[in-house]
Design a protein that fits this description.
single chain, alpha+beta, Cathepsin D, subunit A, domain 1, six-stranded antiparallel sheet, five-stranded mixed sheet, 32 helices, 48 strands, about 30% helix, about 20% strand, RNA-directed DNA polymerase, hydrolase
C-alpha cells in the first residue's frame, strides 16, 4: 500500500487482483489473504496490525473482520489528522503563542533565506517585507494594536475581541487554514486549478469535482480577507493521464470558494516534484524528473492556472462528475427518488453530488418493467341502460356450492351499475346464460344490448359466442391479453361481491358450501346500495325508476324461527322450528330459509329473526340437501331444489314486480324456481335426484380413495407416518454417501431443496406406502455451469410388450425389481451444492451446505447420472447392451441359458430361461443397490400384468376406471363399438365449438390406454387430428369411445404360453380416408402367435393416387417396424432365420414391392418407401396376400360395423378377463 493511497482504494485494488487470480484458476486461502493484507500495510497501521496478530487466531479469522478493524483505525487516524494544524510551509501557520506582534514567524526565516542573484536586499520600510516593485501598503494607515494596514486602532476588531479571550483562543485552537491568492480577474474558468505556493491545502468550492467525500471534519479556513470559513468536507480529485489515473487526495471542500487551488506544499508531501522556471512550472511524479505529468505556463498576472482539459502533449482529464446512472447501478438499480433522498438528506457517507443523465437502464427494463398505469376513470360512460354491459366469470371456487356449481357469471350495466348474477358448473355455459340475460333484460327495460365488454377468456371467444353476437348486432369490446384492468368495472364488481360474501360468511360462521347463497345475497344488496358512479341514486332506482325498500333486510346467516303451517303439524306439536336465513326470494316476497335438521331450503314470510345469534351445527344431520314440495293450498311457499341446474326455458322471464314490504329481485341466480310442469315438459331436463341408499361395498371401496397428501412440511410433520417416511429418505441418502456437509462456498450457486409427498396405491386402491422424496429445485440450475448433459433413454412400450410376449411364448416368468431412490446412486461430474433440508438442519451448523457426490431427484442431470451408473454396472456384470434398444440388456451363457433385463428409470423387469441365473442377478443387484424385490411382475407403468400357468394377461383396468370417473361417465350406458361405421369426422362439420381443454384431456387419456388396447387405436388417432378447435360432434365421438371403454373395463391382451415364437405381421390402409385432405391411413400389427404386441395407426404424409399406392406405403411402414422387431428378437436370442411374413390384401401393392422396375405408376412415390424392395430381396420380409375378411389390421384403419369389429378384436387378442380360462381376476 502506498503512503498516498487511502485504505478504501487499496482494498479495492487488492480484491480486484484476487478476483482476477480466481478467474485464472488460482484461489488463495483465507489465512493467506489475511497475512498478505497485514504485511502490505504502511508503518502507520503497525499498532492495529500488532493488535490483530496477538489477539486473533489468523487461521479462523475472516477477511471481513480484518477489513472492519482497519477501517475503524483509519477513521481514528483521520480524526487526529483533521484536528491538527495543516502546514505546507511554516510561514502559513498562525501561531498566536509565537506571534505576539501579529507578524508570521515563518516570515523571519524566509527573510533570512531570501536570496537573489544581486545579493541581500533590504526590507520594505512600509511593511518590513522583501518584495519587488511598489509596496501594496504604501499610503495606507497602520493599526498600532494589531500591526496591520488598512484601519486605525479604534476600528480594530482585535481590540474588540480582547474582552473575549476564551472565544478567540477557541477559534485559534481549531487549526485554522488560509490561503493567499492574487485577486486576478482575467482568468475565471471553473475547470482551472491555480498552483499556489501560499495555499496550505488543496481547496475547491465545487463538490462535483471530488469523489469519496468525508463530511466529519472540524477544520476551518481563514480567507485572505480575514473571514473564517468552515470546511464542508475532504475528498479526492482523480486525474487521467497517459500513465494512468492519478489521485490527488485530501482536497478541502470550501463552500463559497470561486477558484480551485492546488497547494504546492501538499503536492510535494504526496511525492510530486515541481520545478519553477522559464515562466512555467513542470510537475513530475518522481525524483528522476523523467515522467512529466503536466506543464503549466505562467499568465500575465503571474499565476499558474492548470486547465484539466486534454492537451497536445498528453491526455489529461479530471474525473470531476458522478453520473446518477453509475450510483443507480452500484446500489442495485435503486430508484432515482431514493437516490436523491440519500443525497439530499445526507443519510450515508461517501455519496457525491449526482448529476442527472437521461439514460434508459437496460437492466431495469429487463428486471423491473411494469405495466403502464391505467386511467382511474373511463373517458366514456353509457347514457342509456344496456348500451354497454360488462361481464366476467369468477372461479373456480375450491368448494362446490350446494348445487354443485363452481363459477358465477356477473353482468353489470355501465349506465345504471345494475348487476345480475348466474351460477354455472362449467365456463362453457356462459353463452346460454347470456342468451337468457339478453332476453330477460331487453324485455323488462325496453332497451337493446348494444355492446358487451369482457376479457379474452375462451368462453367469450368461442365461435358460437361470436356468431350469436354478430347475428343480434352486439358490438364486442375485448381486453388486451393480460390486461384485466381494461375490464375494470367487472373486475372491481367481482371483488366487491366476493369480499361482501366472505364477510357475511365469516361473521356468522356459515359453511363454505353456501358461498353461492352469499354471492346471490351480496348482489341483491349491492343493487340497493350507493355507488360513486351514480349521483345520489342506487343502481336499482337508476334501472327501474323507483326507490327500493330495505325495511325487510336482515343479517345474513341469522338464526330464525319459521312458522310451520297448521296442515303440516298436530295441535300439540311445535308451531315453529329453528332455521337459518340464507337470502331473499327472487320471484317471491319471502325469505330463503335453510332448515339444518331436514337439510331443506324453504321460502317463507312468517319468520322471526335473532340477528345477534349464531348458527350452532352440533345437531345437524349429515347428508345431501334435498327438498320436498309441499301440498297445494298450503300457506308455506314452495321449497327450492338446490340441485336444479341453471338451464331454463328460453321463454321464461322474471319480472321485477312492485313491492310493498319486500322488493323482488331481477336477479337470475343459482336458485331459480322452476315450475313443476316446466321441468317435466323440458326434454333437456337433468335428473339430479339425490341418492338415498348406497351399498356397503361401494362405501368401503371409496374409503381408500379419500387420501389427503400433505402439501407442505408443516402438514407432514404432524403425522408420524410421514415423519418416518422423511427419516427413511434421509437414511437412504446418507447410506448412499450422496452428500457431504461443507462450509458455504464463495461464489458458488446454492440450490434449494423441498419435500414432495406421495401416497402409493395398489391396483385395488389400497395404500401401499407413504413416500417422502427430497427433491432439488433444479429449475434454478444454469446449463454449462450446474449441468451439461440431461438426456437419459427409457424403454419403449413396444419393447416391454415384446419382452412380455416372448416370455409368454417361452413359458418364462417375469420378475420386477424396484431401485430405492435410484437417482441417489448416480455419480455427479459437476460441483453442485444444496441447502440443508427443512426440518433436518444440523444444530450449530445452520450456515453450512451439502456438497453433492451423487445426484438428487430434481436435478437436471439426475436421470443421465443414474443411467450412466446402471449402464456401467451392467457392463461390469457381463451384460451386453442391445444396439436397437438402449435400455435392454442381455446376458447369455452356454451352460446357464439367457437373462434379459429391461430398464425403465428405477423399475427393472427381468426374465430368463434359468432360475439360478435369475436368483444370482437379483442377489447381486441387492448387494450393489438398495432394492425392493416385488416378485412376479404385477404392475408396471400403469399396466397390470397377470401371469398364470396358461397365459399372461396385460390390462389397464384401474386407469380406465379413473378416466371414466374423471369425465363423469361412471354410470353411463355402454356401446359395442367405439365408432359408428357410417360416420365421418372433419374439421368443419357445422356444429358448435366444444371445450378444447376437456377434449384434449380425453384424447390424451385414450392415447395412453392404447398401450394395452389396440381396439381403440384407430379411434384415438382419429380424434387426435382435431385437437385444435374441436366441435361438439368431435366431443360426442370422444365420449362414445369412453362409453365403449365403460363396457370393456376388464379387457386386455392375452398372450398364450407355449406357442412357437414366429414373428408375423399384418398391414392395411384406408385409401383417402381423411375428409379434410384426402390422405390415407396406414395400420399394422405384429404377433408371435397369440396376442398382438406391436401395432400402430398412422395418417400417411402424402396423398395416394390409388389404393395400390396407399397399400404400398402402408407395407413400407410395416417393413420398417418388422426390421426393428427382428433386431430386438435377435438380441433376445430368437433370431428370425426366415423372412418375416407380412400379410397384405392388395395384390397390386405386392407386385409393386416385388417389381424393381420403376414405371409410370410408381415414379412419383417417395424413395424412402422403396426400401421395402431391398428387404424383400434380402429375404428379411415376405409380402403374402390374404383375404380382406382375414386382414386383422383392418381394425386399425377405419370404423367398422359391430360384428366385424368384435370379430377382428378377438383376432387381435383383446379379450375380457372374465372369458379367459381360469377366470382371471383383475
Amino acid at each position: 500500500m502506498k503512503d498516498s493511497e487511502s485504505l478504501s482504494v487499496y482494498l479495492a485494488r487488492l480484491f480486484d487482483i484476487l478476483n482476477h487470480m480466481k478467474s485464472y484458476g488460482e484461489e488463495l486461502s483465507r489465512e493467506r489473504i489475511v497475512h498478505k493484507l497485514l504485511f502490505s500495510l504502511p508503518k502507520s497501521y503497525d499498532p492495529i496490525c500488532s493488535v490483530i496478530e496477538h489477539s486473533k487466531d489468523l487461521e479462523i479469522l475472516e477477511v471481513q473482520e480484518v477489513v472492519a478493524s482497519l477501517k475503524s483505525f483509519e477513521l481514528r487516524l483521520d480524526r487526529h489528522t483533521e484536528n491538527s494544524t495543516e502546514r505546507a510551509f511554516a510561514s502559513l501557520n498562525i501561531e498566536e503563542k509565537n506571534s505576539k506582534s501579529g507578524s508570521f514567524s515563518g516570515d523571519q526565516k524566509s527573510q533570512k533565506n531570501w536570496k537573489t542573484s544581486e545579493g541581500n536586499k533590504m526590507a520594505c520600510k512600509h511593511c518590513d517585507k522583501l518584495h519587488y516593485g511598489k509596496c501594496w501598503f504604501e499610503g495606507k494607515p497602520k493599526c498600532h494594536g494589531c500591526g496591520k494596514f488598512g484601519h486605525m486602532i479604534r476600528e480594530c476588531n482585535g481590540n474588540k475581541n480582547a474582552h473575549k479571550v476564551n472565544y478567540a483562543n477557541q477559534v485559534e485552537e481549531t487549526g485554522t487554514l488560509f490561503y493567499m491568492c492574487n485577486a486576478a480577474t482575467d482568468v475565471k474558468k471553473n475547470h482551472s486549478w491555480y498552483i499556489d505556493s501560499g495555499c496550505s491545502n488543496h481547496m475547491t468550492g465545487n463538490e462535483g469535482l471530488l469523489v469519496d467525500i468525508q463530511r466529519n471534519l472540524n477544520s476551518k479556513v481563514k480567507m485572505g480577507t480575514g473571514e473564517v470559513v468552515p470546511v464542508a468536507g475532504k475528498g479526492t480529485l482523480v486525474i487521467k493521464t497517459k500513465l494512468g489515473k492519478k489521485h490527488i487526495q485530501e482536497v478541502m471542500l470550501v463552500p463559497g470558494l470561486e477558484e480551485n487551488l492546488l497547494s504546492v506544499g501538499q503536492m510535494m508531501e504526496h511525492g510530486y516534484y515541481l520545478v519553477f522556471g522559464g515562466n512555467m512550472v513542470n510537475v513530475y511524479d518522481d525524483q528522476s524528473l523523467g515522467n512529466l505529468i503536466v506543464r503549466v505556463q505562467m499568465t500575465n498576472n503571474r499565476c499558474f492556472p492548470l486547465t484539466m482539459m486534454p492537451a497536445s502533449e498528453l491526455a489529461l482529464r479530471a474525473s470531476v462528475s458522478h453520473c446518477l446512472q453509475t450510483w443507480h447501478k452500484r446500489l442495485g438499480h435503486l430508484n432515482e427518488r431514493s437516490l436523491k433522498l440519500l443525497e439530499n438528506q445526507g443519510m450515508v457517507h461517501g455519496l457525491p453530488h449526482l448529476e442527472q443523465v437521461s439514460v434508459v437502464c437496460e437492466g431495469c427494463m429487463l428486471g423491473k418493467q411494469h405495466r403502464d398505469s391505467f386511467p382511474l376513470e373511463s373517458t366514456w360512460r353509457a347514457s342509456h341502460p344496456l348500451e354497454l354491459v360488462h361481464t366476467d366469470i369468477c372461479g373456480p371456487m375450491k368448494t362446490d356450492s350446494i348445487s354443485g356449481n363452481k363459477y358465477f357469471l356477473l353482468f353489470t350495466d355501465d349506465c345504471t351499475r345494475m348487476s345480475w348474477v348466474y351460477f354455472i358448473r362449467n365456463k362453457s355455459s356462459a353463452l346460454e346464460c347470456f342468451r337468457k340475460f339478453k332476453a330477460m333484460t331487453e324485455l323488462q327495460s325496453g332497451y337493446k344490448i348494444k355492446g358487451l365488454r369482457s376479457d379474452r377468456g375462451g368462453e367469450f371467444l368461442s365461435s358460437e359466442f361470436n356468431s350469436f353476437c354478430a347475428e343480434v348486432g352486439i358490438q364486442r369490446q375485448l381486453t388486451v391479453a393480460y390486461s384485466p384492468q381494461q375490464n375494470g368495472v367487472a373486475e372491481r364488481k367481482n371483488r366487491t361481491v366476493v369480499e361482501m360474501a366472505k364477510s357475511m360468511l365469516h361473521e356468522k360462521s356459515i359453511p363454505y358450501e353456501f358461498w353461492a347463497e352469499a354471492i346471490n345475497t351480496a348482489v341483491y344488496l349491492l343493487k340497493r346500495c350507493p355507488t360513486k358512479s351514480l349521483n345520489k341514486v342506487t343502481p336499482f332506482e337508476a334501472y327501474t325508476g323507483r326507490k327500493p325498500g330495505i325495511a325487510h333486510l336482515k343479517i345474513f346467516g341469522s338464526p330464525c324461527h319459521v312458522l310451520i303451517p297448521s296442515a303440516l303439524r298436530h295441535k300439540l306439536e311445535e308451531n315453529s322450528h329453528k332455521c337459518i336465513l340464507i337470502g331473499y326470494g327472487l320471484c317471491e316476497k319471502g325469505y330463503r330459509i335453510f332448515d339444518p335438521s331436514s337439510r331443506k331450503v324453504i321460502l317463507s314470510r312468517d319468520v322471526h329473526f335473532d340477528e345477534d345469534g349464531l348458527w350452532k351445527r352440533e345437531n345437524e344431520q349429515k347428508g345431501e340437501i334435498t327438498v320436498s314440495m309441499p301440498a297445494e293450498n298450503q300457506n308455506c311457499e314452495p321449497s327450492l331444489d338446490l340441485d336444479t341446474p341453471l338451464q331454463m326455458d328460453a321463454g321464461t322471464t322474471v319480472q321485477d314486480e312492485p313491492s310493498q314490504n319486500l322488493d323482488a329481485s331481477t336477479q337470475m341466480g343459482e336458485n331459480n324456481i322452476l315450475q313443476e310442469e316446466r321441468i317435466s315438459g323440458s326434454s333437456q331436463a337433468i335428473d339430479h335426484t339425490p341418492k338415498k341408499w348406497r351399498s356397503v361395498n361401494e362405501i368401503m371401496a371409496q374409503c381408500n380413495i379419500c387420501i389427503v397428501e400433505p402439501e407442505s412440511f408443516e402438514d407432514a410433520n404432524l403425522d408420524e407416518s410421514w415423519r418416518n417416511a422423511m427419516k427413511a429418505e434421509l437414511e437412504m441418502i446418507e447410506k448412499n454417501d450422496t452428500w457431504t456437509l461443507v462450509d458455504r462456498p464463495f461464489g458458488k450457486p446454492i440450490i434449494g431443496v423441498k419435500w414432495v409427498y406421495k401416497t402409493k396405491l395398489n391396483l385395488d386402491g389400497s395404500v401401499q406406502k407413504n413416500k417422502a422424496r427430497l427433491v432439488a429445485k433444479g429449475y434454478s440450475q444454469k446449463p454449462g455451469i450446474d449441468y451439461n448433459e440431461t438426456f437419459a433413454p427409457v424403454a419403449r412400450l413396444d419393447t416391454i410388450r415384446t419382452l412380455i410376449a416372448l416370455a409368454a411364448q417361452k413359458e418364462w416368468n417375469l420378475y420386477q425389481l424396484d431401485v430405492k431412490s435410484a437417482f441417489l446412486n448416480g455419480v455427479l461430474k459437476e460441483e453442485v451444492y444444496v441447502e440443508q433440508p427443512q426440518g433436518f438442519v444440523k444444530d450449530n451448523e445452520e450456515i453450512r451446505v451439502y456438497k453433492l457426490n451423487k445426484a438428487l431427484y430434481g436435478l437436471k442431470q439426475a436421470p443421465r447420472a443414474w443411467y450412466d451408473e446402471i449402464d456401467s454396472y451392467f457392463n461390469r456384470a457381463g451384460f451386453k447392451k442391445s444396439p436397437s434398444e438402449a435400455t435392454l440388456y442381455v446376458k447369455t451363457s452356454d451352460t446357464s441359458g439367457i437373462l434379459i433385463v429391461s430398464l425403465y428409470v428405477d423399475d427393472i423387469v427381468y426374465t430368463g430361461s434359468c432360475g439360478k441365473l435369475l436368483e444370482e442377478f437379483k442377489n447381486d443387484m441387492m448387494k450393489h443397490y438398495e432394492m425392493t424385490d416385488l416378485g412376479l411382475l404385477y404392475h408396471f407403468l400403469g399396466m397390470g400384468v397377470v401371469q398364470t400357468n396358461k397365459h399372461t394377461f396385460l390390462h389397464q383396468k384401474k386407469y380406465a376406471m379413473k378416466v371414466i370417473e374423471k369425465f363423469g361417465l361412471k354410470d353411463c350406458k355402454s356401446v359395442v363399438s367405439p365408432l359408428v361405421a357410417s360416420e365421418r369426422l372433419c374439421k368443419e362439420d357445422g356444429s358448435e365449438a366444444a371445450n378444447e381443454n376437456e377434449y384434449r384431456q380425453i384424447v390424451g387419456s385414450l392415447l395412453y390406454l392404447t398401450a394395452t388396447r389396440p381396439d381403440i387405436m384407430f379411434a384415438s388417432s382419429l380424434l387426435a387430428r382435431f385437437m385444435h378447435n374441436p366441435t361438439r360432434k368431435h366431443m360426442g365421438t370422444a365420449k362414445r369411445v369412453l362409453r365403449y371403454i365403460q363396457g370393456t373395463l376388464d379387457f386386455g391382451i392375452e398372450f398364450i404360453k407355449g406357442k412357437s415364437a414366429t414373428l408375423i405381421g399384418y398391414c392395411d390402409s384406408d385409401w383417402a380416408g381423411s375428409e379434410d385432405d384426402r390422405r390415407s391411413t396406414s395400420g399394422y400389427a405384429f404377433t408371435l402367435g397369440s396376442g398382438m404386441f406391436s401395432w400402430a395407426s398412422i395418417k400417411q404424409n402424402t396423398v395416394a393416387l390409388s389404393t395400390a399406392e396407399a397399400e404400398y406405403v402402408s407395407a413400407a411402414e410395416a417393413t420398417s417396424q418388422a426390421k426393428w422387431l427382428r433386431f430386438v428378437l435377435e438380441d433376445f436370442g430368437e433370431e428370425q432365420v426366415e423372412g418375416t411374413p407380412i400379410l397384405c390384401d392388395n395384390t397390386s401393392a405386392i407386385a409393386m414391392a416385388k417389381n424393381p422396375v420403376f414405371h409410370q405408376k410408381t415414379r412419383h412415390i417417395s424413395r424412402k418407401f422403396h426400401f421395402i424392395r431391398e428387404a424383400i430381396q434380402a429375404k428379411e420380409i415376405e409380402l403374402i396376400y390374404c383375404k380382406t375378411e382375414d386382414q386383422i389390421a383392418d381394425i386399425l384403419t377405419k370404423a367398422l360395423s359391430k360384428d366385424r369389429f368384435v370379430y377382428l378384436r378377438d383376432l387381435l387378442g383383446v379379450k375380457s378377463a372374465k372369458g379367459l380360462e381360469g377366470s382371471v381376476d383383475v
